[in-house]
Amino acid sequence: MKQVKVGIIGFGTVGTGTAKIILSQRELIKKRTGIELILKKVADKDIKRPREISLSEGVLIPDAWKIINDPEIDVVVELVGGIHPAKEFIIEALKKGKHVVTANKALLAEEGNEIFSIAKEKGLQVGFEASVGGGIPIIKVMREGLVANKMLAIYGIINGTTNFILTKMTNEGIDFQDALRQAQELGYAEADPTLDIEGIDSSHKITILASLAYGIPLSFKKTYCEGITKITAQDIAFAREFGYKIKLLAITKILNGEIELRVHPTMIPEDYLIAKVDGVFNAIYVEGDSVGATLYYGRGAGSMPTGSAVVADIVDIAKGTNSLPLDFSEKYSIKPIEEIESMYYFRFTALDRPGVLSKISGVFGQHNISIASVIQKGRSKAGAVPLVILTHKAKEKDVLEALEKIDKLPVVAAKSVFIRVEGQET
């Protein structure tokens, strides 16, 4: 029987779930794998706060460095979050010859190149299944299940907070602020929800998935990021009229040797499976050249789902699975957002006069933008009405230039809105 001694740094939501699973599923793991996990130490700055789990005397300590410097501990689990001191904990643990498991997507996306380089030099493993998708085993799927595939595209709903907000807006017709307030009351959104609603959390996660998919260095600073704060109930309603839903999608795909890496609100056909993923659930669509389209669904956060992913990494390290170091040395370029091609949704606030559509379509024509569908609402006492247009594929650079001209037209009464559209062209 192989014994593996584990030290956990951080005893918050995920740390508590991880400790619970190690202790409660110890015999099951031993029976299935022949590996006995021993929780030797747990470190947290606050060792007096009541928790849902009781640890043996002396296991919970306030000093993380005692775990890192303990020669008996084989695997250090970093669950404190943030960049510092998490980075220092991980690097020092690797230098001490210990494998590391982390759920820290921000740290990996922003500083992971250095961390993986040190791990490779030391011949050690960094497990990070819990950093993307919570309990969805997407890292294992990409490293093992789809290892024989060239990855063509990944589309992910990988932030439960924003998915909950957009679901509420879609189902109840409420505005963004009301939906956010409900998310906060239910504990799905933080008091400061910036990382979620501005798309930063999703950007961290798609950065990691893109590096796994294409072997490129972690490229968070090159990831285009746009949140959901400008999405309105009106746009959601118009999307439905066209047969679409709006989701915050994290997207990476390879086209003609260039990689797209972006996060933004996206209209997708409502009959697509990923469009049906609602509430706090996550879903990740992965397309491989051999397997075709696959979809992975589940809880993207939470104490036990994320703890399950952490423990899976510990067991994989103990078994020697994924023993080869990750190679993020491919030299693909990241396509600037201005160079992508997409279909687009536009909402113009136009004066209710004859010839408005022809003026706007004339500018579109000058910039190689072809109209697919139009919704024009009836007359208004205020003198301005929404004019909604869905286009065929166009280059974003052309779209931005066209919008700059359209917004200056005397018949347009407010700044125009646009949302990118994914799916098959009609």
UniProtKB/TrEMBL annotation:
L-homoserine binds at residue 190. Its EC number is 1.1.1.3. InterPro entries: ACT-like_dom_sf (IPR045865), ACT_dom (IPR002912), Asp/hSer_DH_NAD-bd (IPR005106), HDH (IPR016204), HDH_cat (IPR001342), HDH_CS (IPR019811), NAD(P)-bd_dom_sf (IPR036291). It holds the Pfam family NAD_binding_3. NADP(+) binds at residues 9-16. It catalyses: L-homoserine + NADP(+) = L-aspartate 4-semialdehyde + NADPH + H(+). CDD domains: ACT_HSDH-Hom (cd04881). The keyword Ligase does not apply. It comes from the Bacteria. It is an enzyme of class 1 (oxidoreductase). One of its GO terms (molecular function) is metal ion binding. Its cofactor is a metal cation. NADPH binds at residue 105. Keywords: Amino-acid biosynthesis, Metal-binding, Methionine biosynthesis, NAD, NADP, Oxidoreductase, Threonine biosynthesis. One of its GO terms (biological process) is methionine biosynthetic process. Residues 345-422 form the ACT domain. The active site is at residue 205. Pathway: Amino-acid biosynthesis; L-threonine biosynthesis; L-threonine from L-aspartate: step 3/5; Amino-acid biosynthesis; L-methionine biosynthesis via de novo pathway; L-homoserine from L-aspartate: step 3/3. PANTHER family: HOMOSERINE DEHYDROGENASE. Belongs to the homoserine dehydrogenase family. This is Homoserine dehydrogenase.
